[in-house]
């Protein structure tokens, strides 16, 4: 973690990325501190997932500055991101339904004792991670196929904690979940913050965003279009930044909807 609380855990400055003639990101700035949940919101095609892939090393920006704890870094690959303490959960989760909870948490990063898998140590660490996140999982030996969608998302979040990351990026973690499952996942996100991690939450659900975020950053057409304090910003002001409408436009639409 950053020793100086004023120094962001992650700082992006003027990040730009093109795909041919398409400007996916244009001069994007973003700061995330430890013990903070920053929501990244915007309409489809706003650049949210593209920026997540830049942070996680899947994509390399054409220009811009990336700093971790105030030091300039490059993130040329997912393994480089992991080495810098960045963990990401994309929408597909990348989990295996035929494996149990422990095997999924350590998938691709199994612990060995000589030439054999160290199942005992992995199970012990899995239990510790589940306990730290207060995850409601029946057992670390439960097959993933027997878990609910919310519990699977929880396992994907637990998997990020292998290697003690400093920053966790969550891409639409509550998509297609029930109300109860969403509430559980939001609790786990709050727990990540309590444990000292910086969290980037990408979501279309403004209720979820406002429930757990400290700050809300809006992208529109690949550009910054507003940064809001989650506790004080109005729904209308955030919606205006997302859509490009004025606050007055959104207030008029809200009143018209109430008259129907």
- Quaternary class: single chain
Number of domains: 1
Q: What would CATH call the architecture?
A: 3-Layer(aba) Sandwich
Q: What is the strand content?
A: 25-35%
N→C terminal distance = 51 Å
CATH superfamily placement: P-loop containing nucleotide triphosphate hydrolases
How large, in whole angstroms, is the Cα Rg? 19 Å
Overall average pLDDT: 90
The coarse silhouette is globular
Structural category? alpha/beta
Largest sheet: 6 strands, mixed
What's the number of extended β-strand segments? 12
**CATH-defined fold name:** Rossmann fold
What count of helical segments does DSSP give? 9
Q: Please list the strands of the largest sheet in the order they lie side by side.
A: 6-9-10-3-11-12
Protein name: ABC transporter ATP-binding protein
Keywords: ATP-binding, Nucleotide-binding
Domain ABC transporter: 10-246
GO molecular function, one term: ATP hydrolysis activity
């Amino acid at each position: 973690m950053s020793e100086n609380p004023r120094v962001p855990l992650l700082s992006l400055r003027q990040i730009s990325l093109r795909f041919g003639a398409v400007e996916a990101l244009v001069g994007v700035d973003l700061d995330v501190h430890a013990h903070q949940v920053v929501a990244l919101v915007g309409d489809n095609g706003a650049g949210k997932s593209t920026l997540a892939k830049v942070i996680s090393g899947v994509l390399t920006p054409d220009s811009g500055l990336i700093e971790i704890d105030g030091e300039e870094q490059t993130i040329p690959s997912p393994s480089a991101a992991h080495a810098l303490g960045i963990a990401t959960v994309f929408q597909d989760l990348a989990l295996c339904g035929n494996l149990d909870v422990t095997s999924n948490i350590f998938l691709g990063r199994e612990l060995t004792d000589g030439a054999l898998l160290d199942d005992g140590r992995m199970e012990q660490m899995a239990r510790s991670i589940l306990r730290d996140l207060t995850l409601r999982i029946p057992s670390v030996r439960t097959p993933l196929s027997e878990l609910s969608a919310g519990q699977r998302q929880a396992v994907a979040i637990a998997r990020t904690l292998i290697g003690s990351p400093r920053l966790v990026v969550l891409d639409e973690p509550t998509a297609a979940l029930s109300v109860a499952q969403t509430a559980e996942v939001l609790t786990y996100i709050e727990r990540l913050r309590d444990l000292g991690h910086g969290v980037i939450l990408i979501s279309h659900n403004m209720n979820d965003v406002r429930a757990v975020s400290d700050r809300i950053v809006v992208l529109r057409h690949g550009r910054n279009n507003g940064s809001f304090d989650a506790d004080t910003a109005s729904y209308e002001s955030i919606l205006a930044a997302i859509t490009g409408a004025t606050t007055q436009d959104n207030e008029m639409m809200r009143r018209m909807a109430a008259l129907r």
